[in-house]
């Protein structure tokens, strides 16, 4: 019931409906964030009800912009913190986060819909945790426990107050999603150092060590091998190496 009431309140705010309150503020959202707003609100300032209780962060989130996508905030021409409480007649300006963002620990956690992106990020050597069956509470718990930035296409997940850090992934294709992440964060790729399957670190392995794990023909054809220190899976530059190299080289060169 609480979720339904909150959703109803959000819908009223997004429409600029009075909802029993006479006081309103005007919100101008940065152009590159307007795609997150309801279609009718994407072409200019939006009038929203204010009550002197809800923070500016709550007001902006009610329009459809997750807190992780909110950058600098202004009220009446002055910078304000996320705890500022808008009053009647306030003119609010919402900017997007400055890119690229610097994060001390380059550690990420991806939701269940971003498996292909997780593999691409691991190919670049980016510490990327992923489980294909984790629910929202589990994702938030893991992000907190492991100090990871949660990446998702689910705006509702990013609005969970317990989540310390996250980002909305843009793009439908994995290539576009990866380009968005590389543009948003100041990362230091280390290609071919992580296991695409489990995120473990790779180490050089001898042919004798991997011989029981691969086909004899593969052993005769290739001389250089690596093995995951976590799951033990062996790797070599096989038939798909050229295609994967193009993916890695293209991603690194775009930085």
Structural class: alpha/beta
Largest sheet: number of strands, sense, barrel closure: 5 strands, mixed
Number of helices: 9
Chain-averaged pLDDT:
89
Task: Calculate the terminal CA-CA distance, rounded to whole Å.
Answer: 46 Å
Oligomer: single chain
Measured on Cα atoms, how large is the radius of gyration? 23 Å
Percent of sequence in beta strands = 15-25%
Q: What is the helix fraction of residues, given as a range?
A: 25-40%
Number of strands: 12
For the biggest β-sheet, the strand order reads 2-1-5-3-4
Approximate shape? elongated
User: Could you give the order of the helices and strands?
Assistant: HEEHEEEEHEHEHEHEHHEEH
Low-confidence runs: 1-20
Explain this structure to me?
It is a single chain. The chain has 255 residues and is an alpha/beta fold. It contains nine helices and twelve strands. The strands form three sheets. The protein has a five-stranded mixed β-sheet with strand order 2-1-5-3-4. Strands 7-6-8-9 form a four-stranded parallel β-sheet, sandwiched between helices. Helix 3 (115-123) crosses helix 6 (174-184). It is elongated and about 80 Å long. The protein starts with a helix and ends with a helix.
């Amino acid at each position: 019931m609480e979720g339904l009431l909150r959703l109803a309140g959000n819908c009223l705010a997004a429409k600029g409906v009075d909802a029993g309150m006479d006081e309103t503020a005007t919100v101008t959202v940065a152009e590159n964030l307007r795609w997150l707003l309801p279609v009718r609100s994407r072409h200019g300032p939006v009038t929203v009800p204010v009550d002197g209780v809800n923070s500016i962060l709550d007001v902006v989130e009610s329009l459809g912009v997750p807190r992780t996508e909110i950058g600098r905030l202004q009220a009446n021409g002055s910078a304000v913190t996320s705890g500022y409480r808008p009053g009647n007649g306030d003119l609010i300006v919402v900017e997007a986060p400055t890119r690229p963002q610097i994060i001390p620990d380059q550690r990420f956690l991806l939701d269940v819909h971003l498996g292909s992106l997780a593999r691409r990020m691991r190919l670049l050597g980016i510490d990327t945790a992923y489980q294909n069956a984790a629910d929202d509470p589990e994702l938030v718990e893991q992000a907190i426990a492991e100090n990871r930035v949660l990446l998702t296409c689910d705006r509702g997940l990013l609005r969970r107050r317990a989540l310390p850090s996250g980002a909305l992934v843009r793009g439908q294709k994995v290539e576009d999603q990866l380009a968005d992440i590389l543009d948003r964060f100041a990362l230091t790729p280390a290609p071919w150092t992580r296991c695409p399957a489990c995120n473990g670190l790779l180490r050089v392995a001898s042919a004798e060590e991997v011989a029981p794990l691969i086909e004899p023909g593969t052993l005769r054809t290739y001389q250089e091998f690596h093995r995951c220190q976590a799951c033990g899976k062996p790797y070599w530059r096989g038939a798909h190496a050229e295609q994967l190299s193009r993916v890695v080289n293209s991603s690194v060169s775009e930085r």
